[in-house]
Amino acid sequence: MEGTMHGLLTVLALWCLVINTREISACIAMERDALAAFNASISDPDGRLRSWKGENCCSWGGVSCSKKSGHVVKLDFGEYSLKGEINPSLAGLTRLVHLNMSHGDFGGVPIPEFICSFKMLRYLDLSHAGFSGTAPQQLGNLSRLSYLDLSSFGGPAITVDNFHWVSKLTSLRYLDLSWLYLAASVNWLQAVNMLPLLEVLHLNDASLPATDLNSISHVNFTSLKLLHLKSNNLNSFLPNWISKLPALSELDMTSCGLSGTIPEDLGKLTSLRIIRLGDNNLKGAIPRSSSRLCNLVEIDFSGNILSGDIAEAANSMFPCMKRLQIIDLAGNDLTGNMSGWLEGMESLTTLDLSGNSLSGVVPASIGNLSSLTYLDISFNAFNGTLSELHFSNLSRLDTLDIASNSLNIAIKQSWVPPFQLTKLGLHDCLVGPKFPTAITN
Ligand SMILES: *[C@@H]1O[C@H](CO)[C@@H](O)[C@H](O)[C@H]1NC(C)=O
Ligand SMILES: *[C@@H]1O[C@H](CO)[C@@H](O)[C@H](O)[C@H]1NC(C)=O
Ligand SMILES: *[C@@H]1O[C@H](CO)[C@@H](O)[C@H](O)[C@H]1NC(C)=O
Ligand SMILES: *[C@@H]1O[C@H](CO)[C@@H](O)[C@H](O)[C@H]1NC(C)=O
Ligand SMILES: *[C@@H]1O[C@H](CO)[C@@H](O)[C@H](O)[C@H]1NC(C)=O
Ligand SMILES: *[C@@H]1O[C@H](CO)[C@@H](O)[C@H](O)[C@H]1NC(C)=O
Ligand SMILES: *[C@@H]1O[C@H](CO)[C@@H](O)[C@H](O)[C@H]1NC(C)=O
Ligand SMILES: *[C@@H]1O[C@H](CO)[C@@H](O)[C@H](O)[C@H]1NC(C)=O
Beta strand pairing status for 258-261 and 158-159? Predict the structure, then answer.
């Protein structure tokens, strides 16, 4: 019995050994040479490539090989801060699936064309790596690409003149071309519409040309979860295809030169968590259908010309929005009062209603919004009196601005507030007899 057991264990141990040696994939000599040539011409200020020793290139830092074939399949230099010249010898890594050169410093050279020869490539991250010039059209040959990030904040910008190659990347799920120079990419929307699997699109501050967002008749990218088009002067109406994106969770079209109204069928986007439409020229009322956006965490409609009674909008919208943390409706033409619609919004951290035409008294129930850090109701027509009660539970408050209203502040000087403010706006308030000194630090 014992002998059988012993035998079994030996077999098991041997078997494990076989598995283990199989997993230590040997390195293919030609690929080792390609990496060594790359190593010889790149500059590595942080000394991260010092681990590149010995014969087995599969064990070198940032390099991963396929356990089956032994080919190098992944180069991840995202945290390596490499500089200098990228040797085209890398083209020898023909089975590469994943290439991450983000946060390098390649001194404004164009994206090397040999990258377009990696037919198996699924992940390409060249973000914030100091590339510039025109993106090679042959990137469109990378038909398996699922993830493409060429974004680059600050430094030199990559230009795309003709977006056609993007339309060939039909496997793309993630595309980030923020801060590129896309002014001549008049066909960008048509190209993006050829990407049926796209889930994430970032095109922030990319100098996109004026574009009629309604110029596509049929929307293809119905898997879209995140659409960020911030800071491009599109000069358009909000697209009616927005409501046909059932998975949309984040929409950021801040500063996009949008005009017209917010479409009523916005309420169909029941997955929406974040909506930012600030700093545009949107007019009309906040649509009642927003009441179905129960997963909303952030709503930013600031800096538009929205009108109508805020209490009416709020009473239909907010009851289902239990997770709401940020409400920014500053700088519109909203009227009405604050009575009745703030109850139970325990998650609220930011409430900015400044610069509207709101009136009436500020309800004491505001003192129950215990998560609030930022409260700005300045430049409205609120009247009545603010007392300790209004601030009783606001222990996290950091910024309070009630300036330019007709508010009377009646707080005992001895009152010790539950918060320490870093910013307090009070001008044009009737503060009397004297505001408690403990309120600011
Ligand atoms: C890579 O370059 C470093 C010096 O930057 C050197 O120490 C190392 O031996 C090189 N490795 C290979 C495999 O060429
Ligand atoms: C590339 O590396 C950076 C830094 O580690 C990381 O943030 C990024 O997610 C990586 N990209 C991919 C596609 O894995
Ligand atoms: C890559 O794309 C170019 C132009 O888009 C094309 O002429 C060429 O044949 C493609 N190369 C391969 C290997 O598919
Ligand atoms: C939708 O995408 C498919 C596949 O990429 C494409 O053939 C079709 O022309 C696209 N439709 C529109 C309206 O762009
Ligand atoms: C506040 O606004 C609501 C809705 O417009 C209105 O019914 C109510 O009378 C107003 N309350 C005060 C105190 O003005
Ligand atoms: C704050 O909430 C508590 C509990 O929900 C409630 O009893 C109280 O009246 C509220 N305070 C104000 C000023 O609304
Ligand atoms: C402050 O919060 C406590 C606990 O949540 C609650 O019992 C109390 O009523 C609140 N005070 C006011 C004035 O709302
Ligand atoms: C606030 O202003 C309204 C008119 O806009 C007025 O009817 C009301 O009496 C004022 N309330 C207080 C407390 O001053």
Answer: unpaired
The two tokens of residue 24 are 């230590």
pLDDT of residue 20: 45
Give 324-342 pLDDT, tens digit per residue. Answer: 999 999 999 999 999 988 8
- Within a domain: residue 393? no
- Is residue 359 included in any domain, yes or no? no
Distance CA(328)–CA(47), nearest Å, equals 47
The ligand 7 site (C-beta within 6 Å) comprises 367-368, 389, 392-393
Q: What is the pTM of this model?
A: 0.89
Ligand nearest to the CA of 168: 4
CA distances 30 to 36, 75, 95, 437, Å, are 10, 16, 12, 74
Cα of 428 from ligand 4 centre, angstroms: 58
Domain containing residue 38? 25-72+80-94
Confidence band, pLDDT 50/70/90 cuts, at residue 431: low
Minimum-distance ligand to the CA of 313?
5
Which residue has the CA at smallest separation from atom 3 of ligand 6?
368
Does residue 261 fall inside a structural domain? no
Q: Determine the atom of ligand 4 nearest the C-alpha atom of 195.
A: 5
* Count of domains observed in the chain: 1
| Residue 60 covered by a domain | yes
Residue 23, pLDDT > 50, answer no
Does the CB atom of residue 194 touch ligand 4 within 6 A?
yes
